[in-house]
Structures are given as C-alpha cells and as structure tokens.
Amino acid sequence: MGRPLHGRGALFDADPAGLAPRLIGLRPHHHRATALEHPGEPPFVVLTGARGLGKSAVLGEFREAYAGHTPVALIDCAQEQFARPPAERPAASWSPLAQALLVIAEQLAEPVTGAGRITFPRLMSGLVAVAAGGWGEADSERIRREVERILLLNESGSRFGGFAGRWAGKVAAKVVAAATGTGPLVSGAIEATLEAIAEGFAGRRHQKASVWYRTYPNAGGHAKRGLILLSQHFHEGGPAREHAERYLVRALLADLTEAYTGVMSRMQRLGRPLVLLDNAQSAPGPGLVSAVLRDRADGIADQVAFVAARRGEGGEGLRSAARRELAEVARRTDWTPDAAAWSSHALLVALPPLSADDTLHLVGSVCADVPVPPHLPHAVHRLTGGNPLGIVLLAESAAQNLPGASSLGELLTAPVRPAEDQPAAPAYEALLDRLVPPERLTELTVLAAAHDHDSACALASALLPDTFGPASVRELQTLLAAEGVPQVPGRFVGDRFVRTLLLLRLHLLDTEGAAHASWRTAHETLAARYTGPEHARYRLHHELALGVTESAVAELRDTFATADTGAWLRTLRFVASAPYFHAHDAEGRDFTGRGDGRTAVALGRTDAGQAVPEGVDAVLHLRIRRLLHAVWQLADPLVLPDPQVADRLRFELEQLSNLRPAAGAMLWRASRDWPAAALAGRPMTGPEDPADGPDDDGGEA
C-alpha cells in the first residue's frame, strides 16, 4: 500500500459511512455490505479541482479499498494508449472510447471474493464489429491478435476455458478468407463472432446476449444487421460514431447488469461494480461520461458506481450537475437528479486543500526519522496552501536534505529523488512538471510576475517571442481558468503556490555571472509601467523585488501621518510581499548563495551605518525601514519565521501606534495579530482588511 491519505475521511470513513461505502455498498477494505444511499440509481461522482490536490491519489485509494471485493477498473484518460491508435490500426476502426471500454472490461472481468469472472458478450460482439472495419489490408496474424484480445472478454474461466483461443483462429480464418475473396469482410467477421457465442455457450444468458443487437436502430430485428450498422456508423466518424460509441457503452453496462441478475449472482456479488476515470477532461472521458449520463436520463438504468476525476470545476458539459464540497457529502449527498437535464445525474465534489493539521501529520509521516524544525510544517502549509502534492514533495526534500537546507527555498532548489530507480531533480522542477501545463511552462514563468492582462502583455513584449501577443495572453488566461487555477484580482497566476514556484524558476533562468537577467528585466518592465501615484505600491513592490528599498521606505514614511491607517497597512503588506531569494548587489549579482540581509535590518543591526536623508525624522525613518524588512521577512513563504523578527515587528508597530493616537487601536491590533499569524504559518491579516477580504497581494492594478 502507498502512503495513507490525509483529509479525505469524508470519502472513506467506515463508521459512520463516508461517500465511498454509501455509493458502492461495501465497507472499504472489507467484503462486508453496507446500506446504499441511492439504491435506485447511484450518482455519477466527479471529483474536481486544480492540479496537485490529490485526485489521482483518491482514485488509487478507491481501487486499493475495493479491489478483490467487487469488480474494479481504473483508467487514466491521459495515457498514451488512449491518445492515438496503434501503428497498424486504421483510425477509422479505432477511438479512445472504444479502447477505454476494452481496457475497463478487461479489469472488471477479474474474479472477486465469492464470485468468478464476468463475461462481456455484448461488448465483445460490438468491439469485433468495430475492429473488423479496419481489417481490409490486415495480415492474418494482426487480425488474430486483435480478435483474441477482444474474445477474451467472453472467457469465463470455467469448463469453457480456452474459448477465446479456439474461436480467435476461426474468426481470423473467416475474415482472411473474406478479405481475399469476394464476400463482405465485416459481415464475415460478425457472422463468425455470433457463431462463437451461439456454439461456445448454450446458456440462456449468453444466447440473450447474442441477439442483443437486434434492437439497434434499423436492424429490423436481426442481430447481424445491427452489428453491421454499428460498424458502419463507427467508421463514418462524427455524430454517427458518437451514436455507435453510446451503444458500446450501453453494451458494457448491460453485460454488467446481466452479471448481477439472478438469485445466485445476488448472493455471491456484494456491492456495486466500480469504474474509476482519472483525467476525465481528456478523451475518452467526456464521451464516456456523457453516454452513461444520457442513458440514465433516458431511463436505461444501471447499477455501476462511477467515480471520475477531472481538472477544473467540471462545469463544461455538466452544467446542471449538483455541486458539493467534500465535507458536505461526508454523511449524505442530498442529491436528486432533474428529469429535464441529463447532466444532473452527475454529482460534482470539489476536493479541498489539506488543513494545517493534515500538513503536520503528513510531514511527520514522511520525515519520521529526520528531526525537523518546529515551524517547518506550518511554513510548508503556508507556502503550499494545503496542496497535497506540494506538501509531500517538500516533506520528501526535507527528509533527504535536512539538516543541510535551512529554508523552504533551499528545500525547493535541493535535489529530490522520488524513487530509488529515478534520477534526482530540484524539487521546484518536479512540482512545476505536475502543477502547470508543460507546454506552457516558459510563458507562465515570464507572466507569473504580472498583475493583470495589460501587465502580462508588457512582460510578453519584453521577454517572449513576437508571436506571443495579447491574444496568446488571453488564451493562457482561459487555459488557467479551465485548469482550475483560481482567478484572483491583481495576480495573473492566481494560485500563490504555483506563482511562487514560477517566480523561483524565473529567478534561476539566467545564472550566467549570477546576473539574473530575465528576473531583472521582468521587474524593471513592471516598475517602469506603474509610474503614477495611484499605482505607487505596484512600482515599489517590483523595485523591492530588485533589492531597491529606499523608495519604499520613503513612501511609507511620508504617508504614515496622513494616509488612512488601514490602507497604509495594506500597502505595507503588499509592497513587502515582493519575492526575495537572497541578497543581490546593484547589478543583480549574488552576494552569497544563502544570504538574507533582511533579518539584520529588521533587528536594527545596520542602523548605525544607515545614512538618513536630510530633513526627515531619523527615528521614524529607521523605524519604517526596520518595519518594512520585518514584514518582508515574515511574509516570505520561502523562509521559516524568525521569532526574533516577529518580536521586533510587534515592537515597531506598537511604537507607531503611539505616534497616531486617533488610529492607534488599529496599529496596536496589528502589532498583536501579524506576529502571531506569521509564527503560526498564516497570512498576516487583521482588522484593517476590508469586508470583502484581504488585499495584501492583489487588487486591480
């Protein structure tokens, strides 16, 4: 078994029963029945969310919990086997959905506790008819291989063992004869397949299956005619193929229903069969989901438990589906389909990020033999926002690189070996490989520093090819929304964790001479863009990212006495949210690979050597300078919070509250809230924030 899941008890709890046992009718990891919540028709459950939230891990846990107890099939729709046909197979006789049905049936056929193999005569007949449409130029060996694999779906493993092997040769011989003679090839293949069912099995169940295609539209009550029409429709492509594929899905479900029919079957088979679809946003996912839901809406019932996972919110194609948060389905779903909308037969369940407690336990389980700094789990949670993939990889990096690494930034850049037989790679690269579309990594790296469409266009003009213009920027925004990346005003990449990783990659792009050319160009471009006083905080933010602190200190010092206190605190927080990786000189060169000059400034160790501008209050100037660096250090998601800096932040805000008695209460409250939040791994928010939420890292530019 793999690492145990955290924060997903709403799905797998046994007592009281979570969603999985109520959906399937079995307790996880046991062959013990439990009450079904929806005995008439189960909801088609679709797990939604952005990359890295553990959807694949949840599907893996479903399979682990029920394999061997009830028929289970798991496919990843993003796998290569569903992307294109095999080299020798014509595209007209192959589709991702037909391939998926074959793979699903192969897995569902396996014996389980108390019951033998399930056979799929209906699906087998349809798949042979479809495959036969591409055998015109095929050699006999290829035909034999394809036929035998499909006919194995009807292998019961009983006294009829060897059925597929015997009949594959007969079907192949008839097809080859038809291909070299004047007879119709598809008709010959179908005729041989129907003979295989009729002669190989005398049971009523299999005989019923052999004539199932009599009801295919325009078949005239003839199964052979129905299969020929199915093959023709599949070969035509477009809507005709979709029609044929829907019948193939119906054939799979009819075979499963047949396997559960009868007194003996009901006694032997506990629980519903389970079909799991990962990356269901990719073909064959949408077609399979649509076929099942449309048939259920048309009253063609089945008892299969489907659980799919797809990126994004799942709205496309499922607009009438019910939506629930994971916690809402822990004990009941409150789901009823709408007879007027086929997509209402689906239930979308959003997977949430993990909690701080989940992060604590997960880091502890990965780093069981490695002492970790006490603030590390909370800092990991703040950085990742509870993203399970991020938590696990950072914990793996800690287990492999502590005590040498002293910050989360160093854990991200340190090499991590995911398995003994795999090469090591920096953790941030491994995360980006799985958290962003790989074909868009270059563009997203550049645009991560942007705040909106216009600033993204400015960055694209400065750092990307001329072919990547405003239309490409909008296309990328649309892609991010479809991927489930949150849309946050003031950030082109709304997910804080992904944005931090992309900015780290941008910083490390140009290390020749340690000049960080792309990093400097990006922030200089944006600083030059925000020249007006109404956008001063954006300019100061990007100057601070370049290591220029004087203008930020001056702005905060000069506006302290006159600005609205809440707005002043939010500006301080936003400016100090500038990314910082380590100290640079004026030309962008590294002072040291591990330097962080902010702590020394925040603690006042550099005050004596600091030249105060003429005509300003020296005490206020130095206090604002210390305060800025304290917030900058404590707000940095890549470092562990420093208790000394937190204490200094408390002191500086407390002293500022004495200088503005009218607004002293808000400053004093921040002096308590901000340090406590930073040490606990939470955003530094407080009563100065507006009712619609904090604005420390956003706001329309």
Give a written overview of the molecule.
It is a single chain. By secondary structure, the protein is mainly alpha-helical. Helices cover 50% and strands 5% of the residues. The protein has 30 helices and 8 strands. It has helices at 9-12, 19-24, 55-66, 96-108, 121-132, 140-151, 163-180, 185-200, 204-210, 223-236, 238-259, 263-268, 285-297, 356-366, 376-384, 388-401, 408-413, 427-435, 441-447, 453-463, 470-482, 496-508, 517-529, 536-545, 550-559, 565-575, 598-602, 618-634, 643-659, 664-679, and strands spanning 44-49, 72-76, 274-278, 305-311, 322-325, 346-350, 415-416, 425-426. The strands form 2 sheets. The chain has a 6-stranded parallel beta sheet, sandwiched between helices. A two-stranded antiparallel ribbon has the order 7-8. The two termini are 49 Å apart.
Straight-line N-to-C gap: 49 Å
User: Runs with pLDDT <50, length 5+?
Assistant: 691-701
User: What portion of residues belong to β-strands?
Assistant: 5-15%
What is the average per-residue confidence, as pLDDT, rounded to a whole number?
A: 89
Count all strands and give the number.
8
Coarse structural class: mainly alpha
Return Rg in Å: 31 Å
The outline comes out as elongated
> Count of DSSP helices?
30
* Helix residue percentage: 40-55%
Neighbour order of strands in the largest sheet: 2-3-4-1-6-5
Strand count, sense and barrel status of the largest sheet are: 6 strands, parallel
